[in-house]
Amino acid sequence: MEKKLKKRSSGCIKIVLFGPESTGKTTLARLLSEHYDTAWVPEYMRIYLQKKWDETREVCDYNDLIPIAQGQIKLESKVIDKGHDLIFCDTNVLELKVYSEVYYKGEVPELIEKLSSENVYDLYLLTYIDTPWVADDLRDKPNQREEMFSIFKKTLTTYKYPYVVLKGDETSRFKKAVHSIDQLIASKK
Predict the structure, then answer these.
(1) I want to staple 25 with a disulfide (CB 3.0 to 4.6 A). Which of 2, 14, 17, 116 is the partner?
(2) Is 57 left (phi over 0), alpha (psi -120 to 50) or beta?
(3) How far is CA 93 from CA 67, 115, 135, 186, in A?
(4) CA 54, chain centre distance (Å)
């Protein structure tokens, strides 16, 4: 089972939007996929947990983490299999690992640890907390945004993954992201 969950390697450039809740990741993933006329992968954690909330009014528990990780990898694999040269992921398993560490006192399922280190992206767009926090059924850390951003940034630094911090309004973030992505694409030629 674990072998099937490893994201397939391809020549596809994979870029992930990474950061705390309510920092514009989904909006930016959509805008970038439109700009580059390519696909984006939605955040499976949100799909899964919204369904759970709608059906049971229950929030995430530790037993949900593996199915969420599996769902995220499957969504990414489906998009990669369509032969895109460039994709955008609205979060990834590493983000799930961060949330697991925060919510479950450092406990992370072994499979998520493994998938986090195996599934590496070409660029991480780390979204800063200078966007308005918007409440919804799943978000719950409006007063811990700075702390959460620090955890996300430290994670990327620890793993030594390439990242760019996106700050400012939507236009500023978009322009900085496009500039960084264009540089990445040029370096791959």
Answers:
(1) 17
(2) left
(3) 11, 7, 23, 27
(4) 23
Q: Which two tokens stand for residue 21?
A: 């809740």
* Rounded-to-5 percentages of helix, strand, coil across the chain: 55, 10, 35
Report how far apart, in Å, the C-alpha atoms of 189 and of each of 10, 13, 132, 182 are: 15, 11, 38, 11
The total of other beta-carbon atoms located within 10 Å of residue 143's CB is 8
Domain that holds residue 8: 2-188
- 3-state secondary structure string, 94-155? HHHHHHHHHHCCCCCCHHHHHHHHHCCCCEEEEECCCCCCCCCCCCCCCCCHHHHHHHHHHH
- More confident: 160 or 137: 160
Q: What mean pLDDT is reported for the chain? A: 90
CATH number for 40: 3.40.50.300
* 17 beta partners: 90, 125
* pLDDT > 50? residue 1: no
Residue keyed to tokens 């992201």: 177
The answer to whether residues 17 and 88 touch, using CB atoms and an 8 Å cutoff, is: yes
User: pLDDT tens digit string along 67-82?
Assistant: 999 999 999 999 998 8
89-101 pLDDT per residue, tens: 999 999 999 999 9
What's the number of domains the chain is made of? Answer: 1
pTM above 0.85, yes or no: yes
